Automatic annotation (TrEMBL):
Species in which this protein is naturally found: Gallus gallus
UniProt gene name: LOC107053306
Protein name listed in UniProt: Ig-like domain-containing protein
Keywords attached to this entry: Adaptive immunity, Cell membrane, Disulfide bond, Glycoprotein, Immunity, Immunoglobulin domain, Lipoprotein, Membrane, Palmitate, Signal, Transmembrane, Transmembrane helix
Signal peptide boundaries: 1-22
Protein topology in the membrane: Single-pass type I membrane protein
GO terms, biological process: cell surface receptor signaling pathway; cytotoxic T cell differentiation; T cell mediated immunity
CC annotations in GO: external side of plasma membrane
TM spans (from-to): 182-204
Polar residues: bias regions: 162-171
């Protein structure tokens, strides 16, 4: 158990995780196919690297957005794999080696698989990290509002406001007209009643004089 490649790698991470002796890493990680930019959710994601020294095999590590490192798999020069937990197989990943190339497959890429992936080579008690390959979902942004659409919406709002402000005034004017008409008709009816009363009184007065 103590000599397992996975345990050796974890111990090395604690002792030698910096790039010692000023050595520069020439290893590179790339997507397969290389022209892919961002993985899609649920897809089979494949990555590949070519370590400086293939005689020691290679390991794959993922760094999450919080900076935490997650060991995935160690692939020996004979293409034997050791996954996290010292397991020989994994339901989430596939690791393989062919010649100078070491491949990692994420079988079903999910949100928790997002991060930066590194290919790590162990040489003379020093860990050599490859360049990181970022694997994140595509960023989607909403389309910006055009000035023409904004201007049009402002005109529409102004017109709507104008129409809304016109209706209360029109309603008040109509109400005032109706009230005036009622007052006029009441006054006219009163005048007619007074005129009828005056005529009645006059007729009765005239009849009293003719028939004393």
């Amino acid at each position: 158990m103590a000599g397992s490649p996975a345990l050796l790698l974890l111990l090395s991470l604690g002792l030698c995780c910096t790039r010692a002796q000023g050595q520069r890493d020439a290893e590179v990680v790339w997507f397969v196919p290389r022209n892919m930019k961002n993985p899609q959710e649920g897809q089979r994601l494949e990555m590949e690297c070519s370590p400086n020294n293939v005689d020691n095999g290679a390991s794959w590590i993922r760094q999450d957005k919080d900076g935490k490192l997650h060991f995935i798999v160690y692939i020996s020069v004979l293409s034997r794999t050791t996954y996290s937990g010292n397991e020989n197989t994994s339901s989430e990943f596939e690791g393989s080696g062919q010649g100078r190339f070491y491949r990692l497959v994420v079988k079903n890429f999910r949100a928790q698989d997002q991060g930066t992936y590194f290919c790590v080579n162990y040489i003379n008690q020093v860990l050599h990290f490859s360049s990181g390959q970022r694997a994140f979902f595509p960023v989607t942004t909403e389309a910006p509002t055009t000035p023409a659409a904004t201007t049009q919406s402002r005109h529409v709002s102004k017109n709507d406001t104008s129409h809304q402000s016109l209706h209360p005034g029109t309603s008040s004017k109509n109400t005032l007209t109706i009230c005036c008409d009622i007052v006029i008709w009441i006054n006219l009816a009163g005048a007619c009643l007074l005129l009828l009363t005056a005529i009645t009184i006059t007729i009765m007065h005239c009849q009293s004089k003719l028939h004393p």
